[in-house]
Amino acid sequence: MWQLFLSMFERLSMIVMMAFLLTRLSYFRKLIEHQEIGRTQRWTIMLIFGMFGIIGTYTGLTVHVETTEISKWAFSLKEEEAIANSRVIGVVIAGLLGGWRVGLGAGLIAGGHRLLLGGFTAAACGISTMVAGLIAGLVYRARNRAALSPFVALLVGMGAEALQMLVILLTAKPFERAEALVEAIGVPMIVANGIGSAIFVLVIRHLFQEEEKAGALQAEKAMRLAEATVQHLRNGLTAHSAQAICELFIREVPSIAVAVTNRSHILAHVGIGADHHFVGEPIQTETTRKVIETGEMMVVYDRVICHHEQCPLQKAIIAPLKRKDETIGTLKFYFRSEADLSSITFEFVKGLSSLLSLQLEIAEAEKYYQLMKEAEIKALHAQVHPHFLFNALNTIVSYIRINPNKARELLLSLAHYLRRNLASSTQMLSTLEEELKHVRAYLTIEEARFQDKLRVIYNIEHGFEQLMLPTMTLQPLVENAIKHGLRRMKQGSEIVISVQSSGNEVHISVSDNGKGIEQARLAELLKKPVSSQQGAGIGLYNVNERLKSLLGEHVQLSIQSMEGKGTTVQIKIPYSKQKKEGGFR
Questions:
Q1: Taking the C-alpha atoms of 571, 576, 579 and 584 in order, what is their torsion angle to the nearest 10 degrees?
Q2: In what order do the strands lie in the sheet with 61-64?
Q3: CA–CA separation, 265 vs 306, rounded Å?
Q4: Tens-digit pLDDT profile for residues 257-303
C-alpha cells in the first residue's frame, strides 16, 4: 500500500503542469471567473478534460489482483488486472468548473476509454467515472465563489473515488477479487485523487491571485504616477509638461525610453534614441501616426521604423492621449525585448494614458472655465464703461437740437447695445444675425461720434444668419480695430466687415486700414492675454479661446497685419447646411 501511495503522489506533478497550461486558455479563464462560454468552447473544455482523464488512466499503475504485482503504462488489461489511476481528477475538475454538461461529457470520454481497456472492473470504473462528472457538475450548480476552493475540490475528488470503490464492490465479479482490489488500492486512490483535485484548484487560484496582485500593484503605481503628473498637466500638453512626464515615467516603468507627442511633433523623448528623436521634430514613425488617426493603442513587436538607420528602439507600446474623444497626442514606452510586452504592462500603459487623458480634460475644462469667468467680468465692465457711455451720451445730446431724428436713432442703438451686453453674461451662443445687429448698434454710435472720419463697409453674403457663434465675438473685434488700429487717424478710417462662403466654410473677417500691429506683438496676441490701457472688451485672446472651447479646436482666429497698412482678423467656421433665401443688407 505504501508503495502505491508513493507512486500515486509521484504522478501529481502532471496535474500541476496541466493546471498551469490550462490557465493560458482565455475560455478556461472565463470558467474560473464564472463567465459564460460558447458552445464551441464548452465542447473544447469537455475534450481537454476528457483527454486529461485518459492521460490519468495511462499514467496509472496496473495492479494484478492475485499476485499484487504493480506495473506501469498498460494499454490493455487482462481479466484479473485493474488500474490505480488519477482519471477521476480531470472529470471532477471539469464538472466543478463547467457544470454537469461539461462534467458528464468529460466523464463519457474518459469513462468510455476505460471501458475499452478491459479488465474485470472495466464496466464499474467506466460508469463511475461518468457519474463522478455528473456529481461534480451538480455541485457546480449550487456553487458560489467559495465552491472553487481547494477544500471543496478535495471533498468532491475523494467522494468521487470512494463512489468508484463502492461501484466496484457492487458490480465487479467475482466479489472476492473486487474486495481484494479495493482493499489494496482504495485508500491510496481516494486520498491521492482528492489531494490531486485540491492541488489542481490550488494551482489555478494561486496563479490568478498572483496576476491580480501584480495588476493591483500596477494600478497603485499608475495612480501614484497620475497624482504626480497633475501639477505638470495643469497648463495642458506642452513641451515642458511632456518632458517632466517622460522623466518621471522612465524612473518608474522598466522601459528603455519614453516619449510624448502631439498630433504632429515630438514634445519630449527621454532615454535611448534621444540622440536623434529630437524635441520639436515631426513624428517619425507610421505606427504613431496610425494611433493618432484611429485612437487605438498599438503594440510594436518588430523594429520601430524611423528615419535613422541605426535606431536602437525595437519594441514599443503606443497609447493615445485624448481630450473630449479627440486624440491630441500619444504616450510611447519602448522596451528591449518582446518578453517585456506582457498583458500586465499593456494594461498598465493603457491605464496611464486614460488617467493622463482625464487630467488633460480637467485641465482644459478648468482653463476654459477661468477664461469664461474672466470674459464675463470684462464684458460686465464693458457694459457700464464710463468713457464709452459718456461719449455716446454727449454725441446724442449734440444731436437733440440739430437733428432730433438722429438723436432718437442713436438712443435706440445705445439701448440695443447695452441690452445685448447684459445678455452676453448669461448667453453662451448667439446667431450671426444677432452678432451683426450688435455690431451695427455699436458702429452707429461710433460713426456718429467720428462723423465723416469713419467709413464702415458691410460685405455680407446671404444665407448664414443662423450660424452659431460664441456671444460677444464680433463686437470686440470691431472695437479692437477702432481703438487700436484706427486710433489717432484724423481721416480716411475704414472698417470692412465680411461674411463670405468658401467651399464648406464660412469666412468671417473684420479689417481696418489702420496703423497695423508690430510683428513681435502679433506673435503674442493669440498665445496669451495682452493687456491694454485702451481696451475695454474681452480681448482677442479670450475671443479665440472661447471659439476653441465652444466650437472646437479647429475654429480659431487668424490675424494678418502689416504696419502702416492695416489688420485683418478672420474666423473660418465649417458650415454644411443649405443657405436660405434672404439675408442681410
A1: -10
A2: 70-72, 61-64, 81-84
A3: 14
A4: 999 999 999 999 999 888 888 888 888 888 888 999 999 999 888 76
